[in-house]
Design a protein that fits this description.
A: 117 residues; mainly beta; seven-stranded mixed β-sheet; 0% helix; B: mainly beta; five-stranded mixed β-sheet; 10 strands; globular
Chain lengths: 117, 110
């Protein structure tokens, strides 16, 4: 079945560091990918929609200059957390809708657990 | 996006007991998807419901979509420790992001 690969799975770094997270669709093309953030014991919150060949669409309250999204190809979207601070520590996860047609399930990456010291 | 409310937020059961989580919307939904997230893991797709009044079964799991397509439920019969996790419902529209409910976290003691 369709697989989404997300890397890295875990990052621990100092405050002020920029962190790049990659999301790849392995056996299908994804013109659209979604980035979510999940704080402990909370639901997944949509951050932004990544569109291949155009600018990402950000949800209200999500700083586009803080969370840079690049969808360079039909199989790769990246999320860069710039100058990360402890409050950015969270579980970041991407997803891509199955290309098999409308209303197909979404395939999630394994997520990236980001810890900023 | 369409918002849904899930209840209960937490549920603890003894192994072998049944479990039900409910997903309610104030508006009519086109479709609804259910996901399970194990502790420390990522959401895994369980099912999609499309038709009014639809009932689908997956072994011990029964999913229902209300007649008015405003609510849905997931029922697990005779829970097992492997059922532990958080169950999310999410309305789905073609090509758009999922807007998850807050989820119901199930814990099971043996």
């Amino acid at each position: 079945g369709a697989v989404v690969s997300q890397h890295p799975s875990r990052v621990i770094c100092k405050s002020g560091t920029s962190v790049k997270i990659e999301c790849r669709s392995l056996d299908f093309q994804a013109t659209t990918m979604f980035w979510y953030r999940q704080f402990p014991k909370q639901s997944l919150m949509l951050m932004a929609t990544s569109n291949e060949g155009s600018k990402a669409t950000y949800e209200q309250g999500v700083e586009k200059d803080k969370f840079l999204i690049n969808h360079a190809s039909l199989t790769l979207s990246t999320l860069t957390v710039t100058s990360a601070h402890p409050e950015d520590s969270s579980f970041y996860i991407c997803s891509a809708p199955d290309s098999g047609g409308s209303n197909q399930p979404q395939h999630f990456g394994d997520g990236t657990r980001l810890s900023i010291l | 996006g369409q918002q849904v409310m899930q209840i209960p937020q937490y549920q603890h059961v003894q192994e072998g007991e049944d479990f039900t989580t409910y997903c309610n919307s104030s508006t009519t939904l086109s479709n609804i998807q259910w996901y399970k997230q194990r502790p420390g893991g990522h959401p895994v797709f369980l099912i999609q419901l499309v038709k009014s009044g639809e009932v689908k079964k997956q072994k011990r799991l029964t999913f229902q979509f209300g007649e008015a397509k405003k609510n849905s439920s997931l029922h697990i019969t005779a829970t097992q420790t492997t059922d532990v996790g958080t169950y999310f419902c999410a309305p789905s529209e073609a090509g758009t992001a999922l807007i998850f409910g807050k989820g119901t976290t199930l814990s099971v003691s043996s």
